[in-house]
Amino acid sequence: MKKITGVCLFALICAAVFAQAGNTEQEITRTEHFIIFSDPADGKTLAFEMEERFSVYNRLFRFNPGNVAGNAAWPLNVRSFRDTDAYNRYVGSQIGSIRPGAVYLHYQQRDRRELIINRGSAGEGQALSYQAFIQFLRAFVSNPPSWIREGFAVFFNNLGFDEDGDLSYEENLLWLETVKSLEYLPMPGAILMADVLGMPDDFQSLAWSIVSFMLNSGKHDYLRTMTDSFMLLSDSKSAEENSAEVMKHIFLWNDMEEFDKDYREYLDSRKSFSELLAEGQRAYDIGDTGAAILAFRDALDLRPRHFAPRYYLGLLAYELGDYDTARQYYRSSMQYGADQALVLYAMGLNSAAAGRNSEAVEFLRQAAETAPARYREKTQAIITRLEK
Prior knowledge:
CATH class of the largest domain: Alpha Beta
Number of helices: 19
Largest sheet: 6 strands, mixed
Low-confidence stretches: 5-23
Strand content: 5-15%
Distance between the termini: 45 Å
CATH architecture of the largest domain: 3-Layer(aba) Sandwich
Number of strands: 9
Radius of gyration: 25 Å
Order of helices and strands: EEEEHHEHEEHHEEHHHHHHHHHHHHHH
């Protein structure tokens, strides 16, 4: 997970002003780019989060923030609720239906636009990340090309805050599996011009794949073409007009046959978390330790908070006789949700192999107590032997 630091956040100006929305008392917090209506205890935290997100987005897009901050008539409005019923009532009163987690409402009248958040709800995380980006983009360009809107909303889907309160990012490769499973992969031009030619099936995943390719292909020309095209977007144009303008620029600077070839090779070269886990497990099963370690380390890079690669790397370290490293991996796998009894049993065997018999006995007893049907009989003989 990559921590994003060094983001300059302007001082918050918190007003002791309250509004009634959905029968919930809300405080107004003003920042450089936002007006936030929230629970009084949450205003500063949410204001910090929103400004951090805005800064990350605009490092890439380079829009002129003065177009937001310089016009007091339309800062970006954010309204959050700690109470799910109050959130549902408010959203329902605005659009007649319920959207879990968060929803951005976009109107022609700028001061009516707002991002609404069900703060602390199970669906808040990715919904907030997705909708917050949409709010940012449409503050500058009301009708952006759909591939930019959806592709980057998905790309930033895993932008969030870790347990230390730092903004963090894990690349979202779940969409890679969807794209690779498609029976027919459209030409890039069909994705880039979807507003004009019509939306292909699985458009969100395809839009993400174009964004991921142009950002990460390693070829500077693609990245430069994309970032330059942001400057061509106009708030007064339709999505079709903006798409045509951007596509004209991409055609001008790229050979589209080569673009298509590179795009397909890029997708073939990327491996999802699931693919890397499966690759590591196959290598582990046939005893190819080196290949297994590489695959599990790559999987860990993609999903640092997932227990599976940590557990397997613990097994591999144990088999290589590196018991201290194995112990660290086992502990962290349990921290991130691995089966507790399974890991305690593995830690018991690891401690026994390292000659720490009393510690091994304690781990094995904990495993038996946690899952007696699986481990009581299995551990008893080992414990008896170790105690002798």
